Amino acid sequence: MLVPITNAPRDYAWGSRSLIAALQGRPEAADPEAEIWFGDHPSDPSELDDGSGLTLDRWIADKGAAHGVDGRLPYLLKLLAASSVLSIQVHPSKAQAEEAFARESQLPEGAARNYADDNHKPEMIVALSDRFEALCGLRELGATRRLLESLGEAADPLRRRLTDQDGLAAAIGWLLSGDAQEVVDAIVAALADAQSTEFAAELANARRLAFWYPGDPGVVVALLMNYVVLHHGESVFLRAGMLHAYVAGLGVELMAASDNVLRGGLTPKRIDVDELLRILDPTPGPVPVVLPVSAGDGARGVEAFPADVPDFALMRARVSGASPAVIRPSGPVIVLATQGAVVVEGAGAAVELTPGRAVFATPDEPELRITGEGEAFIAQPGSADAEAGGRATAAA
After folding, report:
1. C-beta separation of 130 from 231 below 8 A
2. Which of 27, 64, 132, 338 could bond 230 through an S-S bridge, CB–CB 3.0 to 4.6 Å?
């Protein structure tokens, strides 16, 4: 069964007044539009796009079982639009979330908590804008030392701590603890005159972060992270323990259905330094960029973004003329249009989608045909052995 769904944009302060509006062909919004959620997450479930006001979680509870939907969706699909940086953050593994959620459930009522559920939150974002900026993972230590040298003596107390990855983790804790505020302030002041051919983009980004969050130690934590610019169709996959922050741009985001976030700067919200360090993976390395690959089985016009998780798989269909994409679902599917106009056809029904509109397809649909002229992203559960991509073919 095909169920058209919709949702209202969430107005977080870091959102954009223009990016989602332009995608949907609307005038610039009066307030920031940060995210549109497509799914049944209880914090903001989609509504059926029929004016009834019925939410997708209620529809699934009432009618899902009859159409092969077994409980809540394991994933959440979003449009994300950032005009300023999101908080630096990290997400737990499944085992860490289960242990911590059970531990916090024993706390007295009103006590501060870090965990909203017992699930992990791996996530992937694909750039829709021509330029999507992000901070992803911790930079290789030798390169970070060279960057810090461009800041002169102000950065020496930090640079001396970066002996290995354990020192890197300890340095992050030191910066966020409040004990390093004089060093943070000195490094931020040194940004004004710092020059580096190798790290010009990183320094420019840090100056922008310092303007948005003056005095925040997250500005210096960001100097330890990989800065990356994605172009349309490029993606990053963020595994458990990887420090990250989206900076600016429009993208399609797919994640496990969880609210578990540990913050590490660039935010007025609570930061639990000890818990952040407990789940942080301090292994430095390159940006985990994911490029689309063929979805297999001789598919044409259908690409997969590989992610080694069972919760979700993400594909993209780009259709034109007489060559439809054919998707054989591995579970409940959400199709979200992002360019042009596409038609999603099931068994005896069809739904036309324009950018920013979506349809939920139940698992009893043997196949979905996507036709028209445009681009659409397809979210579904990952395979049981955590091989992403689903099963897709293209028919003539």
Report:
1. yes
2. 132
The residue annotated as part of the active site, out of 263, 316, 318, 391, is 263
- Cα separation, 126 vs 106, in Å, equals 38
Query: Could you tell me if 123 and 253 are in contact, meaning their C-beta atoms sit under 8 angstroms apart?
Result: yes
Active site residue 131: no
Angle at which helix 181-191 crosses helix 200-212, to 10 degrees, equals 120
302 and 267 both lie in a single domain: no
Close Cβ partners of 200 (under 8 Å, ≥ 6 residues apart): none
Q: Is residue 272 part of a domain?
A: yes
123 labeled part of a ligand binding site: yes
Sign of the torsion formed by the C-alpha atoms of 259, 264, 90 and 202:
positive
Asked if residue 92 lies in contact with residue 262, where contact means CB atoms within 8 angstroms, the answer is yes
Domain boundary, last residue among 245, 270, 291: 291
Distances (CA, A) of 318 to 11, 131, 223, 328, 341: 30, 20, 37, 16, 11
One domain for residues 244 and 297: no
User: What is the token pair recorded at 181?
Assistant: 């505020």
3-state secondary structure 125-139: EEECCCCEEEEEEEC
Q: Give the angle 177-178-183 at the CA atoms, nearest 5°.
A: 115
Query: Residue 175: which region, alpha, beta or left (left: phi > 0; alpha: psi -120 to 50)?
Result: alpha
* 91 annotated as belonging to a binding site for a ligand: yes
312 with 375, same domain? yes
**What residue type is assigned to position 178 of the chain?**
G
- Tally the domains of the chain: 2
| 184 in the same domain as 148 | yes
Task: List, for residues 125-143, the tens digit of each pLDDT value.
Answer: 999 999 999 999 999 999 9
Give this prediction's pTM. 0.93
- Cβ distance 115 to 99 under 8 Å? no
> Does 244 appear as a known binding residue?
yes
What's the pLDDT at 321?
80
Residue 253 marked as a ligand binder: no
User: Domain containing 262: what range?
Assistant: 85-291
CA 119/CA 50 separation, integer angstroms: 32
